[in-house]
């Protein structure tokens, strides 16, 4: 890399918090941009026009951030229930083609040193590389490969046809990349199964969380939250967080609570479950809880502020993530940052975060019986033992998933590829 300027990175993504709402992808881009800039990197952020705030909301120096808007053209009514697949196989690849073309022009003009794209947002850049245009090193992060069904073979078969165009775009990006990012070690086999790459082109760089921001967040008191939700002070509290969609498995956990009630009635009698999130599957989750006989002790908090969300993490005795398939799961890391033990499924990157008998429990996806048995084991542990498991969660986050650690790792990948290109 030329010595006369700082490292310059183009970041391509279809959305970023807080400009386009909040989610795992949006939060990752937000934190990545902020922490790259904190490491003296100049960032060019290429994304769609803001829909929920201005670029100033990122809170970074304008001298180190260039913002380029690329239109995201979709069909009328997109965003309603049932339109997600149609949008992602049409508007999303087209956006990626346009955004990638912008990045290719910047690379040709020598204005960036490396291009980092998330999902299909790098399609146009991949096409430029296949045409042997003058480009810079390309780092591609496919996140959790949800468009392929994650790590669940049955879901992969169901999505093969519906998500065909998006899968093709993602494969094109992977084929053109110098480095493909696996957000967890356990996702490496999934990348190799679905993408046209070999192991030598994979770098493991986890998604991270901002511990400093979490630790300084002014959240409601635990007693206040419990009182507001009419949860007795002596009750055991389970907390789950996520968009209310079928793939998150919350309906499966509702059935698991029914199994717990049948097998361990004394444990179930003093148990409440708070679910923070909103989405199109809410009715089905509520129905599953009513059928299981646990509807009166399930509280759907809906979409909550960051302050309230982290208050619920702090209030939890146990964090539960019963997902059917998953990417990296930032919500699990957030719960771990609050020193909470975790009950989760063996899906996506969760096995990299939760180690049985160390900081939680892992069960197979879509198995309410296993969830119930693991939950019973957790509830029967002495409080001091669960607290020690929670401290192990926090220690793992500090060691492996805090953003300063992640940013250092990512920058090392960028610099390695730049040096390799200069030697060619």
Structure report:
There is one protein chain. 44% of the residues lie in helices and 14% in strands. With 424 residues, the chain is α/β, with parallel strands linked by helices. It folds into 2 domains: 8-208 and 402-423, Glycogen Phosphorylase B (Rossmann fold, 3-Layer(aba) Sandwich); 212-401, Glycogen Phosphorylase B (Rossmann fold). A 7-stranded parallel β-sheet has the order 3-2-1-4-5-6-7, sandwiched between helices. A 6-stranded parallel β-sheet has the order 10-9-8-11-12-13, with helices on both faces. Helix 3 packs across helix 4, helix 9 crosses helix 13 and helix 10 (250-263) crosses helix 15 (368-379). The longest helix has 21 residues, at 403-423. It starts with 7 loop residues before the first strand and ends with a helix.
**How many distinct folded domains?**
2
* Radius of gyration, in angstroms, nearest whole number: 22 Å
Let me know the number of strands: 13
Average pLDDT works out at: 92
Secondary structure blueprint with pairings:
Blueprint: E1 8-12, H1 24-38, E2 42-47, E3 65-69, H2 84-88, H3 91-108, E4 114-118, H4 123-130, E5 138-141, H5 153-162, H6 164-176, E6 179-182, H7 188-194, E7 202-204, H8 211-215, H9 222-228, E8 236-241, H10 250-263, H11 265-268, E9 271-276, H12 282-292, E10 298-302, H13 306-315, E11 318-321, H14 330-337, E12 342-345, E13 360-363, H15 368-379, H16 383-401, H17 403-423
Parallel strand pairs: 1-2, 1-4, 2-3, 4-5, 5-6, 6-7, 8-9, 8-11, 9-10, 11-12, 12-13
Helix pairs in contact: 1-17, 3-4, 4-6, 9-13, 10-12, 10-15, 14-16
